[in-house]
Amino acid sequence: GVAEWVAALNRFAAAELASWELHPKGDPDCARPWAEEGGYGGRGGEGLVQYGMGSVPAPMAPPDPRAPDFAAQQAARRAKARPNPTIIYASWFDNGRPLPVPPRVVDFLRSSGVRAVLTGHQPVGDTAAVLWPAPDLAVVAADTSYSNNVRWLALPESVRGGGAWDASALEPRAMRPLFADAEGKARPVREGGGNRGDAVCEVLVRMDPAR
Question: Is the whole-model pTM more than 0.70?
Answer without folding.
Answer: no
